[in-house]
Amino acid sequence: MKKARYVSRIAIAILSIAFLPSPVSAELPPDVYERMQRDAPEVLKISVKRVFASRKGALDFSGDRDVTVFAIVVSVTKTASGLKAGDEIVIRYVAKNPDEKMAGPRPIPKLEEKKEYPAWLSKSEAGHYEPAARGFSFTSAK
Fold this sequence. Notes:
alpha+beta, 5 strands
């Protein structure tokens, strides 16, 4: 009798651990994205020339992709790095797997070649640019 109760407690513990919700982060409120855009060091309009996306790594089964975008600066609203119209830039970021339907911050949208986008960016120490407003880095939050 004691052994059966012990076994059932272990089974309940294992099942409760297996069905615990995984940690997720919630969508950010719109004013947070607006603040990120206001604080972005680079506010530009870009024309996308090429987009390359590849799996993050050989052991990464999440479906996330490393994205590299080659773009031309069409116009500059604000720049901390001295960009001007006509400059070629490289933008790098990780795109979340679109098939994952999880709560969390808005994913960065897929950019299409030969299209123009507003861009809120920051320059990395490596010299490329990165999205500065998460999922609203290439579309207005207002």
